[in-house]
Specification:
heterodimer; A: mainly alpha; MetI-like fold; two-stranded antiparallel sheet; 2 strands; globular; B: mainly alpha; about 75% helix
C-alpha cells in the first residue's frame, strides 16, 4: 500500500547514516587491526597478521584477557543469582505492587553509570564508608585496603550496574509463561519446588541466556569501572585497548584486541 | 485470572531475598546522597556535621556549569539526530521490505548491545580518517548515532500499537501518503516521540564511554566529573551526582508514565532490552 517514493524516503536516509557512521567506522577499526605502526609513529597500511600474532604470543595479553573473562564471568553469575530470584518474585509473587516494584528496578538502570561507579568508590575506599563503619564498630582498627583497587571492587561495581540489565530479559520471559501451565502442574500434584524446576525454569531459559549474554559482554567491554575502582590488579582487557589508543599510540594493536 | 499459584503468599525467604537485592541496588545511591550533606568529607562513619555547603560550592563552580551547558547542547542535538533518523528507520522496519533489511536492523541496534568502547573507537577512527577535529561536534555525532538504536526501538514499539485502519481511511478519502503521514501517523506517534526524546536526552547527558574517545577541548558533564575524580574526591562530586540522579530519575519516571499511557496492556515489561534481543535474533 505504500508508494515507492514513501518507501525510499523512510529507507534511504537512515540507511545512509548508519552506513557512514556505524558500518564504515566498524570496518575501519577492523582494517586497522591488520595494519602496523612504524617507529616514527605513523600508521603503515601494509596488511598483515602481526597484531594478532603478537596477541597470541605475548602472555601478558592472554593473562589480562583471562582475568577479564574471569571478572566478567563472576559478574554474570552474581547478576544471575541476584536477578533471577528477584525477577521470579516480581513475576509470580509481587501481586498488586508489581508495577511499583518493577519501576524500582528500572530506576537504578538509568541512573548515571558514572554516579554509581563513584558511589562504590566512596564506599570501598580506605577512608571510605565501609571502613569507617567497621572501625566504628571496632571490628577492625586499621583501614582495610583491599576493598578498593582490586578485582573484588570491580566485580561488585559491575554486578551492581548490570544486575538490572540481567533481570529485565529474565522477567520478560517469566511474564510470557502461560499461567495455566503453572496451575496445571499444581493440579497434577507437583510441589512448588518441582513446578519451578520442571516447568518455570526451563521455560525461562531464553531470558536467562539473554541476560547472561548482556552481563558478560557489557562487563567484558567495560573500561571505566576498572579505571575507577580497579587499580593495577583490576585492569581489564578494555583498559589495555584504551592505553594502546592513548599513550602507547599503537592503534593497530588496540584494534586487533577489540575484535 | 490471578488464582491459585498467583495469589499464594510469597514464600518468606524469597521475600527477604528480594528485599536484600533491592537493598543492594539502592545502598550505594543512598550512601551517595547522604554523604553529599556530610560536612566532614566523603568517607568515615557515622556522617557528621550536616551541611549544604557542598551544594553552595557547586552553584558557584563556573567550570562545572560550562560542562552542564555543553552537555545540554550535545543532548539536544543528539535527540534531534536520533529522532530524525530513528523515525524513518522505524517506519522502514515496520512497513517496507528491502534486501538487507535484517542486516539494517542489526546495524541500527548494534550500539545498544556493543560496549561503548567499540562504538567510540570506531567513530574515532572515522573522524581521524576524514581529518575531522575532535570537539563537541564529534561527541554529538557519536551520541546521535549510538542513540538512533533507542529511538528506533521506542518508535517501532509505538508504530506496532497504531491503528493501521486510520491511515487506510485517510488514504481512501483521497489524502496522499505525505499528507497522511503529517495528519494521521505523526500525531498518533506524538507520545512515542516525546517519550523517546526524553529517554535519549537523559542517556546522552549521562553518556561517557563513547564521549571518552571523541572528546575535544570542551568537556561534557560526565567527563568533567571524570577528570575531577582523578584529582581526588570531594563531597562536591556527591552533590552534583545527587542532582544528576534526581534529574535522571525525574526524566525516567516521566518517560515511564508516557510509555504506560501509550500501552493499554501491561506487557510494557522490559521495553528496550528484549526489543534489542528480538532485533538480534530476527
Amino acid at each position: 500500500m505504500y508508494s515507492r517514493a514513501y518507501k525510499t524516503a523512510v529507507t534511504i536516509p537512515p540507511l545512509l547514516w548508519v552506513t557512514v557512521f556505524l558500518l564504515v567506522p566498524y570496518a575501519i577499526l577492523f582494517c586497522y587491526s591488520f595494519w602496523s605502526v612504524s617507529s616514527a609513529q605513523t600508521i603503515l597500511h601494509n596488511w598483515n597478521l602481526q597484531n594478532y600474532l603478537q596477541l597470541a604470543r605475548n602472555p601478558i595479553y592472554a593473562q589480562v584477557l583471562f582475568r577479564s573473562m574471569r571478572i566478567a564471568a563472576s559478574v554474570t553469575v552474581l547478576a544471575l543469582l541476584l536477578g533471577y530470584p528477584l525477577a521470579y518474585y516480581l513475576s509470580f509473587h509481587a501481586a498488586k505492587r508489581k508495577d511499583l516494584l518493577y519501576q524500582l528496578v528500572i530506576i537504578p538502570l538509568w541512573a548515571s553509570y558514572l554516579v554509581r561507579g563513584y558511589a562504590w568508590k566512596t564506599i570501598l575506599g580506605s577512608d571510605g564508608v565501609l571502613n569507617g563503619f567497621l572501625q566504628y564498630l571496632h571490628i577492625t582498627h586499621r583501614p582495610v585496603e583491599f576493598f578498593l583497587y582490586s578485582p573484588f571492587a570491580v566485580i561488585i561495581t559491575l554486578t551492581h550496574i548490570y544486575t538490572p540489565f540481567t533481570l529485565l530479559p529474565i522477567y520478560a520471559s517469566l511474564e510470557h509463561i502461560p499461567r495455566n501451565l503453572v496451575e496445571a502442574s499444581h493440579d497434577l500434584g507437583a510441589s512448588p519446588w518441582s513446578t519451578f524446576r520442571r516447568v518455570i525454569l526451563p521455560l525461562s531459559l531464553p531470558g536467562v541466556l539473554a541476560g547472561a549474554t548482556f552481563a558478560f559482554v557489557l562487563s567484558l567491554g567495560d573500561f571505566l569501572a576498572p579505571l575507577l575502582v580497579g587499580g593495577p590488579s583490576g585492569i581489564m582487557i578494555s583498559n589495555v585497548v584504551v592505553s594502546l589508543f592513548g599513550a602507547a599510540y599503537n592503534w593497530p594493536l588496540g584494534a586487533a584486541i577489540s575484535f | 485470572m490471578r488464582t491459585g499459584f498467583q495469589s499464594r503468599r510469597a514464600p518468606f525467604l524469597l521475600s527477604v531475598y528480594a528485599f536484600l537485592v533491592y537493598a543492594f541496588l539502592y545502598f550505594p545511591i543512598i550512601v551517595l546522597v547522604v554523604y553529599s550533606f556530610n560536612g566532614s568529607g566523603v568517607g568515615g562513619f557515622p556522617p557528621a556535621h550536616w551541611t549544604i555547603d557542598w551544594y553552595r560550592q557547586l552553584f558557584m563552580d563556573a567550570a562545572l556549569w560550562d560542562a552542564v551547558l555543553n552537555s545540554v547542547m550535545v543532548a539536544a542535538v543528539a535527540v534531534a539526530i536520533a529522532l530524525g533518523l530513528g523515525l524513518p528507520a522505524a517506519l522502514a522496519l515496520d512497513r517496507t521490505d528491502f534486501p538487507g533489511k535484517a542486516l539494517f536492523r542489526r546495524l541500527v541496534l548494534l550500539p545498544l548491545i556493543l560496549p561503548g568502547i567499540i562504538t567510540g573507537l570506531s567513530l574515532l577512527m572515522l573522524f581521524v580518517a576524514v581529518g575531522m577535529k575532535l570537539s563537541l561536534v564529534t561527541i554529538t555525532l557519536g551520541h546521535g548515532t549510538a542513540l538512533i538504536s533507542v529511538a528506533t526501538t521506542e518508535i517501532f514499539a509505538g508504530l506496532q500499537k497504531l491503528e493501521r485502519a486510520q491511515e487506510e481511511a485517510s488514504l481512501d478519502l483521497g489524502a496522499n501518503h505525505w499528507r497522511t503521514f503529517w495528519r494521521v501517523t505523526l500525531p498518533n506517534l506524538r507520545v512515542s516521540l516525546i517519550a523517546a526524546g526524553l529517554l535519549i536526552f537523559t542517556l546522552s547527558l549521562d553518556e561517557i564511554a563513547v564521549s571518552f574517545f571523541l572528546l575535544g577541548r570542551a568537556n561534557t558533564l560526565p567527563l568533567e566529573i571524570w577528570s575531577r575524580l582523578r584529582r581526588g574526591i570531594t563531597p562536591e562530586i556527591n552533590a552534583i551526582s545527587t542532582l544528576i540522579l534526581v534529574f535522571s530519575i525525574g526524566m525516567i519516571l516521566l518517560w515511564y508514565r508516557l510509555r504506560t499511557r501509550l500501552q493499554h496492556t501491561d506487557e510494557s515489561a522490559a521495553p528496550l532490552v528484549p526489543a534489542a534481543i528480538e532485533g538480534e535474533s530476527a
